């Protein structure tokens, strides 16, 4: 067995947004299992222009780091809304409810999480950031 794994985040990792009914406005490629990660997690997400995820979430034990690699957007963090531009990085602690909305040109972001957690660590809240809370 090699001491490394190489995967293309877009072509080698399943787009979970298709199964979740969020495609084509969202691509969500969760690569922890395909990469064999044991201590952390990583995902690639692409948001269509103006698309806001229909749910917020926080974690039981996982801290996250979001890096906006292209486009722009807004990130709602508890009661705050932060404007993001290309290459902004945001650390989010496990207890902070979060949600992302793409800007006019859409957005691509990488999300990193640690420690590694299985299903069930996220507390999801549908409609947490609705259109009346801009």
Q: Would you spell out the secondary-structure blueprint of this structure?
A:
Elements: H1 16-19, E1 26-30, H2 32-35, E2 41-47, E3 55-59, E4 63-77, E5 80-85, E6 89-92, E7 98-114, E8 122-126
The CATH topology name of the domain at 25-117 reads: Jelly Rolls
Beta-strand percentage range: over 45%
CA-based gyration radius: 14 Å
Which oligomeric form is depicted?
Answer: single chain
Instruction: Provide the helix percentage.
Output: under 10%
Shape annotation? globular
| CATH architectural group of the domain at 25-117 | Sandwich
CATH homologous superfamily annotation of the domain at 25-117: Jelly Rolls
| CATH class assignment of the domain at 25-117 | Mainly Beta
Report the order of strands and helices.
HEHEEEEEEE
Helical segment count: 2
Number of strands: 8
The assigned structural class equals mainly beta
Average pLDDT: 94
For the termini, the CA-CA separation is 50 Å
Main beta sheet, described?
6 strands, antiparallel
Q: Which blocks of ≥5 consecutive residues have pLDDT under 50?
A: none
Keywords for this structure?
Jelly Rolls, single chain, about 50% strand, six-stranded antiparallel sheet, two-stranded antiparallel ribbon, about 130 residues, mainly beta
Overview of this protein structure:
The structure is a single chain. It contains 2 helices and 8 strands. It has 134 residues and is mainly beta. It has a domain at 25-117: Sandwich (Jelly Rolls). It is globular, with a radius of gyration of 14 Å. 23% of the residues are buried. The mean pLDDT is 94.
């Amino acid at each position: 067995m090699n001491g490394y794994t190489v995967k293309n985040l877009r072509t080698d990792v399943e787009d979970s947004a298709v199964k979740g009914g969020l495609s084509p406005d969202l691509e969500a490629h969760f690569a922890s299992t395909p990469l064999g990660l044991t201590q952390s997690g990583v995902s690639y997400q692409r948001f269509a222009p103006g698309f806001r995820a229909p749910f917020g979430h926080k974690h039981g034990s996982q801290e996250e780091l979001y890096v906006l690699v292209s486009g722009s957007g807004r990130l709602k963090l508890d009661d705050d809304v932060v404007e993001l531009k290309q290459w902004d990085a945001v650390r989010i602690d496990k207890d902070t409810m979060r949600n992302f909305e793409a800007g006019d040109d859409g957005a691509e972001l990488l999300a990193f999480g640690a420690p590694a957690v299985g299903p069930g660590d996220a507390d999801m809240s549908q409609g947490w950031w609705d259109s009346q809370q801009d």
